[in-house]
What does this fold into?
Amino acid sequence: MSERILYTYFRSTAAYRVRIALNLKGLAYNPRFIHLVKDGGEQHAEAYREVNLQGLVPTLIEDDISITQSLAIIEYLEERYPSPTLLPESAASRAQARSIAQQICCDIHPLNNLRILNYLRTEMQQDDEARHQWYQHWISEGLTAIEQQLTRHGQHQSLCCIGDTPTIADLCLIPQLYNARRFSCDTDDYPTLIKIDEHCMTLAAFQQASPKQQSDYE
It folds into this structure.
């Protein structure tokens, strides 16, 4: 096998998800750091655009195959390296785990990522307070729905989103909670999510993937 490379940025929630997945599966990788802010954003450089046409992180390269989009990368890792699994056993539980992951990756995160916040600041001429309100609104709407969903399905009694073993849902939730705190969002209304976060952060795979543990952390 050729060198496994992950293009990543310490603060990227999408890259954070993939780092957790790689750690849980015990897969070593060589990080290539793409600073999303410095010099206008290294993701816009022509050299990186050759790697990822969207100019986004993460990108995983393995066996000369380049894979973009965090959920696609995680699903690839799950299919190629099925043990330990990142999906629950039953079809219904797998669907539920994917539902939570997609709520975060498709509905919450895209509205609040760096390029959207920058667009609000530059093209829409929104000040810091307006952009902060925007961020908090979509975080609150999204996390409230997930909190209620887990409570309704009885998962508030489990250590993780689906049962007691981390799944793709937890890989997406923990980075999103990290970002919520970074933007001073009130998380008191999400006791189930906070309990899951506290448990996951006792696990080495999550600890080692955290932004503060990355070599490019600043």
